[in-house]
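Repro case for the chain-ordering regression, as requested:
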Amino acid sequence: MTIHLSILIFWPLLLAVLGGLAPRGVAPLFAVVGAFVPLGYAVIMLADFDTGAAGLQYVTDDAWIDELGIRYSLGIDGLNLWLVALTTLLFAASALWVALRPPVRAKLFAVHFGIAETAVLGAFVAQDLALFVLFFDLMLVPFYFLLGQWGGPERVAAAVKMVVYTLVGSLLMLAAAVATAVLASPGELTFALSDLRENLLGENSQKLLFAAFALAFLIKMPSFPFHGWMPDAYRNMPLPVLAVFSGVVSKVAAYGFLRIALPLFPEAVADWQLILLIIALLSIVYGSVLAFTQTNIRLILGYSSIAQLGFITLGIFALDPEGRGAQGALLQAINHGLVVAPLFLIAALLAARAAGSEDLRDMGGIATRAPVLATLFMIVTLATLAMPGSANFVGEFFILLGVFESELAVAIIASTGVILASVYALRLYIRSMHNREGPAVTSFDMGLRDAIVLVPLVLAILAFAVYPQLALEAGEGAVQAVTEAVAR
Amino acid sequence: MSVTTYGWLVLAFPLAGTILIGLTWRLLPARAHGILGTLAIALSFAAAVLAFFELESLGEEERQVVAVGWNYAVANGLDAKVSILIDPLSTLMMLVVSGVSMLIHLYSVAYMGGDRGYTRFFAYLNFFVFSMLLLVLAANFFLLIVGWAFVGAASYLLISFWYRRTTATQAGIKAFVINVVGDVGLVLGTYFIFRGTGSLDFLTTFEEVGSAFGRNDGDLVAGCLLLLVGAFAKSAQVPLHTWLPDAMEGPTPVSALIHAATMVTAGVYLIARMHPLFEQAPVAADVGAILGCATLLIAATIGLVVTDLKRVIAYSTMSQIGYMVMAVSSAAYAAGMFHLMTHAFFKALLFMAAGSVIAAMAGTQNLDRMGGFRRAMPFTFGCMVIGGLALSGVPPFSGFFSKDEIIALLFAREDWHVVLGVLGYVGSFMTAIYTFRMIFRAFSGEPVTEARELLDHGHLYHPEHPTNPMTGEIEDTDVGFPGPEHHIAEREAPMKAAMGMLALLATIGGAVQIPSVNEALHHFLEPAFHDSRFYEELEPSGTLTIVGLLIGSAIALLGIFVAYTLWVRSPERPRALQQRFAFLHRIFVNKWYFDEGIDLLVVRPMAWVGRFAASTFERTFVNGALVGGTSGLVRLGSAAVRRVQNGYLRYYAALLLMGITTLGAYFLISA
Amino acid sequence: MNLTWYLVVSALIFCIGAGGVLVRRNPLVILLCIELMLNAANLALVGFSRAHGNMDGQMFALIVMVVAACEVAVGLGLIVALFRRRLPIDVDELRELQG
Amino acid sequence: MTPQAPKIDWEALSPLVALAVGACIVLLVGLLRGRFARRHLTPALTVVTLGATAGLGVWQWGANTSVVEGALAIDDLTLSLTMAFVVGGIAAVLLSWRSSAAEEAGEGEFYALLLSSVLGMVVLVAAQNLVALFLGFELLSIPLYVLCATHMRREHSLESGLKYLIIGSVGSATLLYGLAFLYGATGSTDFSGIAAAGAELGDDVLFLTGIALVVAGLAFKASVAPFHQWTPDVYEGAPTPVTAFMAVATKAAAFGVMLRLFDVALIDAATTWGPALATLAAVTIVVGNVGAIGQSSLKRLLAYSSVAQAGYMLAGVVVSTSLGVQATVFYLFAYTVMNLAAFAVIVARERETPLGDDISSLYGLGSTRPLLAWPMTIAMLGLAGLPATVGFFGKLYLIRAAVDNDYGWLGAVIVIGSAISLVYYLRVIAAVWMRSPSEAPVARVAVAGPRGRPAIAGGSHEADAAAPEERRVTQLEVIFVAVVAAIATIVFGIYPEPLFDLARDAGAALTNLV
Amino acid sequence: MAEVLFFIAAIGAVAGAVGTVSLRNPFYAVLALVCHLLALAALFLLLRAEFVAAAQVVVYAGAVMVLYVFVVAYVGGSGEPLVVAGGASLRFASILFALALFVELTIALVGTGLSALETEGAGYAPGFGTPAEVGALFLTKFLVAFEIASLLLLIAAVGAVILARRRAGLGEPGEVSVADVMRGREITASDAPAGSMLEAAGPPKR
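-- result from build under test --
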């Protein structure tokens, strides 16, 4: 019983509120502090985490609402340890980025930003179904404001579309969660995952409820064909926000599959496996193909995310005995977050060099006077296309191996996704950095305030590429537990 | 120090060089980086040499040493470690790679002198060497794949080194994507093998393979074929070869190093390395051999007609690698590696010479516009001829021994491999022809303006505008384009040194393995192939060898003679021949329509699907049916509700009454 | 004379009243129709009270009369107010609020 | 025969007495000459009365007695709902303090009517026999008819009054006829008697038809589709404080009586009316949410939303378990605080801008008036049922109750409804935060009074007196209501335990349920 | 004998109801309602509800209706054409629904298993329906109802006053508002609703 996780998740909120009350000027400072302390916490946790031990660590478990059997129970294990770290890292980076370029009404921005981090972290560490759902739905609110107030031209419409579309899933999940708890509770109603895992439902109700959860997660990812909200949202969301949104929020969905769906509905998962694999496959191919037809950088990255999350879904539902697929999915979730965030920030820099345009057709030749930017961008690009030697490749290697063992054909088709990825990623790089200069391009290298954010992120990517073992070891036990649950 | 330590050092130096150059890109003057890079490789080479001796000092059977650096991805029953394997095979490769690389670095120090991207060039080049050595030293599939992809990336970076040339970037992405195809093949192949042996480590796998798979076991064959996909993509074998000719967009040293000497031979190395698997899956091996043979003929035919200097050499590279693949796939391992080595020498040499010529031509590579450089650039001419003789296998040059060794072993292999041997001779005939066609057209005949400029005024030809030789579009000389002082034919010392060195090697390189005289290489490599079924047995009889050598030299000389008659004696003859064999000529000129085929089968459909998805599907289904449909439904309902809410009190009352009635009806019915 | 008759009559009156509310436009008359409905209820109540022989129904009926009176008072007050504001005494004209 | 005077438990009866007496006093004080007395004393006294009622209610908590020959039951259900009425009442008083609606009606009368309406609600939910029920019903309605019309300068007000009166009377007539049938079928006016008789009556036609009519009558009061149509018009036309009061208190009363009647008197017919009510609930949810989309008048929008909310709460009634009762009561309170916050903001904006209750009156609120913007935002998020607001747990609780009693599909309908509702709730939030005042259409002043005063429901003289350009007079009490309600929404969204306890006691009051 | 009386009264009641609904002139409608009420009183008597009957005549037919008559006179009961805004469709629908409802109710009343309805009613109990009984009940069982009813009356009165009393700024149709005179607008009888006092008085003298 420790308070650490509570501090970890509520610190940003606290600072956000304080920042809201503080005088206008210092608000960004509050945001930075609010984002960096959790980062420190997470780093310490990484060091302190006991890889060998099974089960949860840093557990907090208090009664919250007896009436509904909802407990305030948090915990860290192999599944969420690194995702928490990733979250704190990306939020810290993004907060710093914003603090160095304060937007209008920075105070309000900081408030929503803090709420967002709290919600995401909460969703990651929650060990109670209702608590998870609560944070999962809460996540959307701050992003609605961030998109709606600081977004691009059609921000309001995009924001409404995003929230409504994704909440349709989330609310169904809410109902499903309640149903699960009510049906599964032995006596007293309980939402505690540990209890729910113990007494599972009948196969039919499992199928129904799993469908609700799956829908919610697939929409959130987003996964083909439920990505209708994505283009508008991505086109209009402010880039630093988009960095964390695309980097982290989508991972909550993937994590949800591992934490909630697989353990609670094993039989349903077994029945729906092929369907979900096919959805994942379609996401990979469709996302990749669209990614190399788009010219708007945000959309290229958006569709590439669809493909990447397709891979993650693929891994989760590989359900191979060793749990390689899930292991890879977990790793890939971290990797994708780690690469997509800097990419969005770089996109901001590119736009700054292409007279504000985010369209590839207006770019080209930006590398000429920006060697540092070009190098960082190149590293991130290669990581994105899962070049062997990057941690992303390790992730995909595990995923594909997992699928290869359960569904050979799927694996072989999916591997074309790797090829397509190399096409759209390089296309993005070449058409922005290489070739003849675009008409409005003025090439200049990145400044200190860009480097201070981007370089650490890229270093993180490199470090991860050299030694992914750490994350794998942490995840191994937990992942196997999950997959065994399904196998049983 | 132990042999593995040297192995790590071999890896460490180039990497350190890359990082150092990268970090000091602003601190040191450009030239310093050139020297730094060369130095790094030199050290690496030294380490390789030491490793060689260290290895020699070990006993026959413990000449396969594995060293584990750290666990890379050891989880869920997967054993992907950072571990290197030092054995004669990898050592030979180390030596060749680091050695040739060193010379080419040296060459580049001068050749790239005028380029604005000088520092970047050496960073890339060092990175490439590191990757190549990683590939060579990898002790498990995972690391092999890593190195494999790294060299691919390095080659991409160097191909599109002049990144503001659209032609260059296109060539780059083409090369990269095809290489990724290879990587994927390698990965999937690994899966198949891993499924059987349950380990990624080479030596474990090789031990397991016998017990894990039966002969020609389905999984194993599939795995090996997929490995071949990887090998072919990297070694530009049919049908995954189309990237290599385009890769000539890169600076000439790159072509020399990557696309002639080292990277493209990785496939050969892979097959040799995986020999236990291929011997267990002969079907796959045969496929390899046949495709290799096909490649060598196709490439040679194209080489006969291409008019681009560098591309001629590129195609000849393809065809030579075809020999090697054919060799290692038919268990002539030593011969294959031998040819790999000699080829590295003379092909690098040829490229350097070509680079010198191209420099003199101010970037132009078209043979039709060349001529008469013999007196203008004697040194280059000399090198070119030596290289040419070696390539076309004229005794006593290195190529002669290696190539004929291969063919001899093919004959020794009996049954249908004999056919391959015969075709090998056909290939070598064509080789001799196109090689000397190239040489004659570039050096003999009336000096062209550029040559004359060099002869009469002793300085290089400078066009008023730098242009892209492919498209002829005007360029500046800033970063991303060739620099202003980019024309330094054979002037500078480092170039001469490098070329001279290679010329020497190309001449005497064959000495290491002369049939029935000196079997050094064969013995040296033996420990690496101790588990091979053929290595010992496959031994051509003395007479066969002698006959082979004689036929080989005869064919080569004949080829040279033909070339001489055609392009020196009566230059109008080729035109006539073209008329005669118009059909063949068209096929050859269009490179057997491979690009078109791939474009038709892969690129176009993909693009079409993409356009369809982006324009139609996204709108009609994803946003139309799913989003628009539901929202439309809701709006409709909203409209309906608000129409009913029309403000007429009596309407409300009516609805009230209706509600009451229906409710009453329901209750009556349920009663 | 059994009680069903009385009740059927009350039902008839109730429905006439209800129908009246729908067809008339003058709020005064609509109020009258509502009175009809209430009286129908009264008749039913008294009838049932007779049937069960307990007084509750009758008491209820008396209370209803009071209520009816109150509704009338307020209703008429409203109509007067409308008239004062020079608003048309016609429910079909009063449809500012809609949609 | 000399009738034996019934013994009366004055303690238990005290809350009602307080209200009645308070009403009379306020009425009398309203007759005083002094402007101060009328303007400020009457509302103060009203608040005091309501406070006293609440206090007495707390004092009587847990007594669970039935008074005056079992005519009324003063149990925790009654008292808890009384609290809801009191909250709504106090809010209404604060919102109408210094408002022109009250002034036009004459403060004394205005507040007296308010109080008597509250009394009617208490009687309604406490009633143990049909007579008391009907009387309570009327006592709650008739004052409201008047209150709706009090803002005479706007014909909207009168129109809404008339519509409410006529439809309402039809509704109560229907109810009455239904009650008559119940009495006829069971021969008793007491719930207990009806329940007893209902046990053997089973599905007698007369009995069921009676139920049908009663359902219709009550459904009308709770604005359940298809008996909801008066709601938008009346809500829009009535003075905003009155609308707020109607929205929260009336709804609470209607559901209170539903709980009593259906879950006590008619429980044996549950198998029959259950599905009917469930269907009505589903229809209501859809109609309400769908209707609210694209409304530009905030009051209208909230009216439709209240229809939808009624649908949610009806689900709680349908399941007819004590869990359902608890869920309903809990949601009633959640609904009360959330709506009060929203209406308070609307009142404030009506007084500040010439735009009335048009959604454009909220434009740019976020940057200029955080104290109004946040309450509005929180209220909307709460009504949409998003986490960290009490609305979230309300929905959770309702769904849980529904699923618990095999009405899982109703739970699904609830969430789908909430999903649709987001469209218009988010629109309001967007208006608050994401639009600039410049986007607002040119001031569309509602029918101007003779002094060129924009006569807006809930408008205030201080506000109107100020010159149009700097009409910045927001009475503090309005902001106070908004902020308090918003805070309650959040606090109960994080620590709902107190509300749960209250709901649990209320549910326990209906002893006959599982 | 009772049957005869019943039929007379019932017919009277229904006829009155129909008259109320269908007569164009509100004034006549009111009178029709009075007839209806008297007939109803008779029915009450037949059902042994003397006091209710009496109250019906005195309170209802007497007091309440007088109120009506006054208002009609004040407002001017302009008979409206019976054409319905919703057109014939709504009217047809409403009649249809009314009929349907009637059918349902009748089914309920006839189909019920309640035996008492088949009889003349329960046996005669002494004092059933007498004022004494009523009074006693009002003071005992229905005490609450009684009190609340009284309060309700008070509130209704207050409400009526609020609504109907004069107000500054709200023009009185009977009077000429100064503003109108200033605007020099010609006040004509046509401005006043038909049947109002202004109409009777005609335009003001200048």
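Ordering looks correct now. The helical segments of chain C are 3-23, 27-52, 56-84.
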